[in-house]
User: Fold Rhodanese domain-containing protein from Zobellella denitrificans.
Amino acid sequence: MQEYLDFAANHPLLTMAWLGLASAVVYMTVASRLSKVQVVASQQAVLLINKQDAAVVDVRSAEEFRKGHIAGAINVPASQLKANNLNLIEKFKDKPLVLVCETGMTTGGVGRVLTKAGFKQVYALRGGMTDWRSQNLPVTKR
Assistant:
């Protein structure tokens, strides 16, 4: 134990970096476990869409959406949803809702806004459209 204390005393910046990193890992783990937004893989999203009639909300920009999106998805940019402008998706409040972005990094924050607004079943597509395309799942431009 004394060796650890000596190391910490001799290398305070390295020790602080490790403590900060460990704290971040713990925080992210706890936050993801407590989140009401469930992260789902592409195959799970397909099941939600086909079996539970989930609505797909693509939170990318209109330009990105036009380049290709999941069939049946509606486009509501993340900025609009984060500003609590939920008019376009209010009708889906009691249905499963699959959120899609390009890489899966934006949907978590949007999902938290939606769960606070009373949406019951919010899912975020892991890996976003990048993962969807890599699995050769269908994409449409209509």
Summary: The chain has a mean pLDDT of 91. The chain has seven helices and five strands. The longest strand covers residues 96-100.
